């Protein structure tokens, strides 16, 4: 294991010493030497003191003889080598609590490790419930981050997304959070995997601690890279990943995740896919794209996959998807942006993901998009015609038709049947009133009420065609299922 001078000083911080180091102190030192050698710590005597020197500066051990000083510095290298091997084993075993406790020997400060759902995987057992701020006590007691702490973090650092950014410092001065330190995220295959926080309490944190945290995250990333199985990844992944893949989800985790985000399961959602056209995407290019997306869409939740990013957009909380933000960003890049229909309910994410994916996979059916976004809306008719699943056809129906259909189940006021006839008879008031056996004035009142409920322009020819095909699908579904379809 290669060390920096800061890392050496951090290991022997309790000794009487003078430290003169530059911030540009990379971890390149392989061992201690009594003679100068490249990428080694040079140990020599200066009167009664021992000097440990490198290109980035020096550490003076006061009143320490050369032989003893050399043994001290070399023992630091030996310690870190043993620690590194131990940490590798703990990562392989996923023994996160033991890993956190082992890290106390290098950070000498409290440390916490969280999964994607803000669940504590490990906390420094060297500290009790009362040895930190209110949030430390809450974590010790309940094993999850508090919603109040997450809200405070967002308000205190609005420019940061602590779920996605890598190593950065933090300093909080409040009643819930009152601490400072460094935090680092593990991003694996473009996706947030876990987070480590180191709190400054018993020793001031410095460049060496940043390097140790980065090294720890690299070790964990390397292990995950060798364990590419989807089963291993999903075990600790976000519940959103399971929802997108139509898998069973832990309701407790999902509810907590929604509370953290300030979302509701009944909110209106959309799924957006950003997919590169490159055959291969380097880790650096993926990181740039991920950072760009999180910078322009901080209010969304994002999941990374190979060559693509999936954005979960909450329309109820953030309004319509901000197309103008992404249009210019990807105007000159080799990336496709596919967007699903809007739909109520978090449990419909798998259908929305299928739609956004279909928009990208079948972009030739969409033609040229004026804003460079491949909108499933404009291939909805083709998708319904090509789909072999009546269920997927139902979820691909025009959003206004779906909304009227759902409303009919709740209100049972006949507006859906009126709308169906109105489209069938090409918006002829006379023919529609005769078909549904109601007076012309009653029909006009109903049509006015229906138009107030519609989000899309009925004067648009494609919209009307899409609606009419959707009405035919709902009628087919009703006949095939001898009733109304269940709306999840």
Mean pLDDT: 87
How many helix segments?
20
Query: Which radius of gyration do the C-alpha atoms yield?
Result: 30 Å
What's the helical proportion of residues? 40-55%
Backbone shape: elongated
Unreliable parts: 229-236, 484-488
Give the termini distance in whole angstroms. 54 Å
Structural class: alpha+beta
Short characterization:
This protein has 488 residues and is an alpha+beta fold. It is built from 20 helices and 16 strands.
Topology:
Layout: H1 5-11, E1 17-21, E2 32-33, E3 41-46, E4 49-54, E5 57-61, H2 66-93, H3 96-107, E6 111-115, E7 120-123, H4 134-142, H5 147-156, E8 168-173, E9 178-188, E10 191-199, H6 207-226, H7 230-234, H8 239-244, H9 251-261, E11 268-276, H10 283-296, E12 301-305, E13 308-314, H11 315-318, H12 323-329, E14 335-339, E15 343-344, H13 349-361, E16 373-375, H14 380-386, H15 390-395, H16 399-411, H17 415-424, H18 429-436, H19 440-453, H20 461-481
Parallel strand pairs: 2-3, 14-16
Antiparallel strand pairs: 1-5, 3-4, 4-5, 6-7, 6-10, 8-9, 9-10, 11-13, 11-14, 11-15, 12-13
Helix pairs in contact: 1-6, 2-3, 2-6, 16-20, 17-18, 17-19
